[in-house]
Amino acid sequence: MDYLAVNKAAWDKRTKIHVGSKFYDVEGFLKGKSSLQEIELRELNVKGKSLLHLQCHFGLDTLSWAREGADVTGIDLSSTAIEQAQELAKHLEVEAKFICTDVYNTPERVPNQFDIVFTSYGAIAWLPDLDRWAQVVSDCLKAGGQFYMVEFHPLEALFDGYSYFAQQEPDVDDEATYTENCNGETNTVMSWPHPISEVLNALMRAGLELKGYNEFDFSPYDAFAGLQEESVTNPAGEQSCRYFLEHKQQRVPLTYSVSAIKRA
User: Fold this and answer.
1) Quick one: pLDDT band at residue 53, thresholds 50, 70, 90?
2) How far apart are CA 62 and CA 47, in angstroms?
3) Are 61 and 73 in contact (CB under 8 A)?
4) Vertex 87 angle, CA 83 and 89, to 5°
5) If phi over 0 gives left and psi between -120 and 50 gives alpha, with beta otherwise, what is residue 207?
6) How many structural domains is the chain composed of?
7) What start and end residues bound the annotated signal peptide (predicted)?
8) Which residues are CB-neighbours of 83 under 8 A, at least 6 positions away?
9) Predicted pLDDT at 235
10) Mean pLDDT (whole number) for 206-229
11) Which residue range forms the structural domain that includes residue 105?
């Protein structure tokens, strides 16, 4: 199976559903609400910097970084998502570039280098080869530039019956999308598990120097079965929700972040 064609078809369809969902809250975003979450807002400073967002979906986080002062470019496999991102940028009159491309072809489609390369929540599971991914990150960074990612913790996958450890063959699932307005339609998707050791080693092999690694006992999204909800005050002084999972009365790690620098 051609994983790019399979996943592009699924995400083209999902985008049309996601744009109208409460989960993504495009209406609130258009009124000024940021789609960024407390972890990345606390850990990443983008003001005055150029930022490349890998696998940006339909651009809410990319445009939120633009609101934080970054000069942004977003790439995504889904042409439907990129078209929606371009429409949002035009509507908001925000300077942003959005390019439809597979992650591995990014250096050819986006030849300039950036101060920051960013990726987040649920992105790397769609990629079969993290060494190629990490080399793309390195190729797209300026010397001294920063890579930052925040992701769902792969340990949670064990509770859903998936492997924690890397495997060559993909998991092939026929599943509906995750937003509350899902109409029940399913699509075939192909994904791969990536343990944290694989992520870190791939980045280091690509010449990046690890500067920070953090794990968190919550998810900013109600994205998994069995999560409990708690309310907290976010960095903007607003109330927001965290979601946590317990196993034998102990919290399970649900997210992690990595910061690395491209050595000169």
Assistant:
1) very high
2) 13
3) no
4) 115
5) left
6) 1
7) none
8) none
9) 62
10) 96
11) 3-262
